[in-house]
Amino acid sequence: MSDAVLFSVDEGLARLTLNRPTRLNAFSADLAHAWRDATTEATSRDDVRAIMLDAAGASFCAGGDVLDMANTMPDGRPLTELAGVINEGIRALTESAIPVVAAAHGTTAGGGLGILLSTDYAVVGGRSKLGSLYANIGLTPDLSVSAHLADAVGSRRALQLVLQDRLLTAEEALEWGLVAEIVSGEGAVDEADRVRARAEEIARFWLAGAAGAYGQAKRLIRSQPSRTFAEQLDEEARSIGAAFDTPDARARVAAFAAASAKKAR
Question: Which residues, by range, are in coiled-coil regions (predicted)?
Fold first, then answer.
């Protein structure tokens, strides 16, 4: 696997690190393929029960590498193909039954916003900025931005973001519902370390609990748009029955019942 994405698995936690820090982790062909390979491996391994996504350097992800586009792409066809490669990784994350946390310090812009939206729980730094910025260079949203942004913040706010060259502050992103938590630090490097530490703490919380149930809850929410209301109710009923049959749920339900009975005495 290319070192454009660092990949490791430790006690059920797969960690994926975007690793083009000198280009603000903007996507080149190398990073696109490494991203696709790392995400598909992480979501297909039986020993992975939680995923953490972070990035090296000063920023999370600046989207596509515009200089690389200008210097290597004679027309739009290679860009469409490259977006398709990245989209395979986005689908791997969003369609999996594995919860994904992002540690998104620094700037997240363009397609980087789509990468952030493909995770399920985002932690950012107090200095972080998030935005679209596609139209600044005459391009349109990709990498799931048009698919996920309105779901996350509502269509009116999504339009406000894609129709302006606006970067949201961390506080605005939290208020809009784009991110779950803000972690501040004494400087940019310290803040990035604290954001990563908090994201890993969240992932370890999932692993210490009923990781399978968290993953199935994520799957139910993420896959809901493909079903009617009645179909979603049926899928919820099927899923909770399947969960009840797992050894983990059996043990947890029995422990809860025993503790409740003890309190009632």
Answer: none
